[in-house]
Specification:
The structure is a single chain. The chain is built from 22 helices and 10 strands. The protein is globular, with a radius of gyration of 29 Å. Helix 3 runs antiparallel to helix 5. A hairpin with a 4-residue loop joins strand 2 and strand 3. The strands form 2 sheets. Strands 2-3-4-1-7-8-9-10 form an 8-stranded mixed sheet, with helices on both faces. It has 780 residues and is an alpha/beta fold.
Length: 780
């Protein structure tokens, strides 16, 4: 027997959008049976199923619907590998923390910072590739594969193939071990293209030929990333392949810089072919850098009013394949001929140290350029002030701080892989400290320094976190006073009062000490980077001479790598873990891939267009006879998606939309850290678009003192006492709910009423009363 699902769109529809925990549709609708009516398993709309139409609560006058987008951010354990792309995500997120972004053509300072960030993003991709080249091509192929030196540990077992007769030349060792970095680039290419097909490749249409755009979040060009992300991805992949080609060829040439035009280095066709491929690889790298500097590269344009048909058969489609062909040609050139160049016993892979040091210097220079640019324009870039809204922390230098953190993490991952691999194969040692007593592998000094700096930063993070936690006693005292005021019987049960006060204090962690803790960590990272650079220039061997520092770096980096994988897996498996840690991940992946095309995918590229189409459909669109009223009901991160949707819907549609948010991080996180996109003007714009004329805003926001993520949006609301009714109308927008609703055990219940925190806002009577007030017109 078939089940009944109401598929109508007339009357009222409460469209629920979940938050960070990936709430299943059945939980969002609080009903065991649901049916998919639009979209797919990754992101789709669901409604409740009933035995028959007369028994259903969904009617032609009112129905509930849930938009579930959890499939875009939750899934199997393989997606935990995305957490290894955290540096890419941080750098991409840093772009949107720039307070200088405005509607229209960017100013000179913003354009300069955008170019610098895209070059920095390209350098982080090269850092990953160089890390793989160092661990595989250098350690295994170049050093362990050399038969004239002491074999590496384990050489008699899994490295025995290095001494097979048909592979026993340096060029063939390099070619075989280059499979690892090539596989890494292929994986990045595959993931980037796959997620692009699922998100950015979705068509985005413009609502009107000449829309009125007053805030950056209203501009639909922000979600029109089909062409720009494809361009940037092609350039990054081409540069990654070119780096591999360089290190396949340069070690085999006595004078690589003269290989192509010096006749002494062209005694054979193999030498000439190697020199030619090397010259092409270097030229390709220069071409990619120049393309990154051009303002038109990666620039997003406003979509047209119709579906755009694009063949995408251009240079950017061919470029990665041409670069891959160049790598294959370089491998053939490396294997061609039996004559070997300089013996590998001379040390680590030629050019490796120079490239790593040059890349480090270039990245540090770009970070300094970002800092100076922000300092020069800091006063001018400040967003419109508001009495209640928080300002951007850390003196408005969030962009530079987050970019610094991403750079440090990328360097730490590369250093950790290199040092761990050297430990497995033998023992890591700097060039000037190589000994004879053990199979020692030469590791570039920069990796020792990066590893040591990351280890010190990790230890500093533990100390700073512990100090911050201990400093919460003032917040706990204030929370205890609030509990006594809210609950008249709090003094009768001190233990219960203490539990509630602790929950209130933990919810204020981000407000009270969280941003200060992160600010202290970033300041420590900057100090470690500057001090390390100065000491390195004075005494490059300072770290490598301290054996305990090397051991500490290896230990901490190995633990951090495993911890990162564990955290990534837990973030996608455990809803509870996602509610506490996943919010930070979802904040980063909300933003489009503007600077780094290989960052984890942006779910908003899919959810915002999906909801735009759905809301316009439920509101009736152009069919006057099918007009409906929509309550856009958004929880947690869903409220950020809902805000973006309201800002981009048409005026005609917004007349039929009401907004209900709960557990919303709009002000607590987004106004504070992304002031160019969420500020007083954009929040007022949301309320104005929903409200006909000069009436009260058709928007309500519910939050709790125990919610660690959600908070007030426009202004703090008073906390009602136990048993008091929450007023719903008229304005203002924000309403605070008491949690737990009752202090003592209810009659017949052996346990205390639960502390709900960030979850299950539907359980509070104020939620249903707000929905009813919208429907009855009490919130106009």
């Amino acid at each position: 027997m078939g089940l009944y699902t109401n598929r109508g769109r007339g009357g009222w529809t409460e469209l629920r959008v979940h938050g960070v925990s990936g709430t299943p549709p059945a939980s969002s609708l609080d009903h065991p049976g649901v049916a998919l009516i639009a979209g797919d398993a990754q992101a789709g709309c669901y409604r409740r199923q009933w035995q028959t139409a007369p028994t259903g609560e969904d009617t032609d006058g009112f129905r509930r619907e849930a938009y579930s987008w959890g499939g875009l951010t939750s899934g199997d354990g393989q997606r935990a590998l995305w957490l290894l792309l955290l540096p890419f995500m941080l750098l991409n997120m840093a772009f949107f923390t720039d307070p200088g972004h405005r509607v229209g053509k960017p100013g000179l300072a913003v354009a300069f910072r955008t170019t610098v960030q895209r070059l920095l993003a390209l350098s982080l991709t090269c850092t990953y590739v160089l890390g793989a080249v160092s661990a595989s091509v250098d350690l295994v192929g170049w050093q362990c594969g050399n038969a004239t030196v002491r074999p590496c540990a384990g050489d008699e077992s899994w490295l025995r193939w290095l001494h097979y007769g048909w592979l026993d030349t340096p060029g063939r060792h390099l070619t075989v071990t280059a499979v690892v970095p090539i596989a890494l680039v292929m994986l990045l290419w595959y993931l980037g293209n796959k997620t692009w097909q699922a998100a950015e490749a979705q068509p985005v249409l413009q609502s009107t030929p000449a829309p009125i755009v007053r805030t950056p979040l209203e501009d639909r060009r922000m979600w029109n990333g089909r062409g720009p992300v494809r361009q940037l991805r092609s350039l990054h992949i081409a540069a990654a392949f070119a780096v591999i080609a360089v290190f396949l060829l340069a070690p085999l040439l006595d004078r690589p810089h003269e290989a192509f035009w010096d006749k002494e280095n062209r005694d054979t066709w193999a030498e000439f072919f190697r020199g030619l491929c090397l010259a092409l690889a270097l030229a390709l790298l220069v071409f990619v850098v120049l393309m990154m500097v051009l303002p038109r590269t990666g620039r997003r344009t406003r979509p047209n009013g119709c579906h755009e048909a694009s063949s995408e058969s251009d240079l950017y489609r061919v470029l990665p394949w041409a670069a891959l062909a160049l790598v294959i040609g370089s491998g053939v050139a490396a294997c061609w001929g039996s004559k070997s160049a300089r013996p590998p016993a001379a040390g680590q892979l030629p050019w490796e140290v120079t490239w790593i040091h040059t890349l480090f210097l270039a990245q540090a220079t770009m970070l300094v350029a970002l800092l100076l640019s922000q300092l020069v324009t800091r006063k001018r870039d400040k967003a419109r002030p508001a009495q209640n809204l928080p300002r951007q922390p850390w003196g408005g230098l969030v962009l530079t701080g987050v970019a610094l953190l991403g750079w440090a993490l990328a360097g730490a991952l590369a250093a950790g892989v290199m040092l761990r691999m050297a430990e497995i194969l033998g023992a890591p040692a700097a060039a000037q400290r190589r000994g004879r007593e053990q199979a020692q592998l030469i590791v570039p000094e920069a990796y020792f320094w990066a590893g040591t700096g990351a280890a010190l930063l990790a230890l500093a993070a533990v100390v700073i976190g512990a100090v911050s936690w201990l400093s919460q006693h003032r917040v706990r005292r204030a929370a205890a006073q609030g509990v006594e005021q809210a609950y008249p019987t709090a003094q009768n049960d001190p233990r219960r009062a203490a539990d509630i006060a602790t929950a209130w204090a933990r919810a204020q962690l981000l407000e009270s000490t969280g941003r200060k803790t992160l600010g202290a960590l970033l300041a420590t990272a900057a100090t470690v980077a500057v001090a390390g650079g100065v000491v390195f220039m004075v005494d490059p061997a300072f770290v490598t001479n301290q054996g305990w520092l090397v051991f500490l770096a290896n230990l901490v980096l190995s633990a951090a790598f495993l911890g990162l994988l564990w955290a990534g897996r837990q973030a996608y498996k455990s809803p509870r873990f996602r509610r506490t840690v996943g919010i930070l991940w979802d904040v980063g992946t909300f933003w489009p891939r503007e600077t780094h095309p290989l960052a984890p995918p942006c779910y908003a590229e899919r959810t915002v267009p999906d909801l735009l189409k759905r809301v316009e459909y439920l509101a009736g669109g152009d069919q006057l006879a099918q007009r409906g009223e929509v309550i856009l009901s958004c929880h947690s991160q869903g409220s950020v998606i809902g805000a973006a949707v309201v800002l981009q819907t048409t005026t005609d549609t917004n007349r039929h939309v009401r907004l209900l948010t709960y557990g919303s991080p709009l002000t607590r996180l987004f106004v504070r850290f992304f002031p160019a996109y969420f500020n007083a003007m954009s929040l007022e714009r949301i309320g104005g678009l929903l409200t006909p004329g000069d009436g009260p805003a058709r928007w309500r926001n519910l939050y709790r003192p125990t919610d660690p993520i959600g908070s007030w949006i426009l202004a703090p609301a008073g906390l009602p006492g136990e048993g008091a009714t929450v007023g719903l109308a008229p304005s203002p927008v924000d309403r605070q709910l008491l949690d737990p609703a009752a202090f003592a055990r209810l009659a017949g219940d052996p346990v205390y009423p639960p502390i709900l925190g960030h979850s299950n806002y539907f359980a509070d009577p104020a939620f249903e009363e707000t929905v009813q007030a919208f429907r009855e017109g009490r919130i106009l």
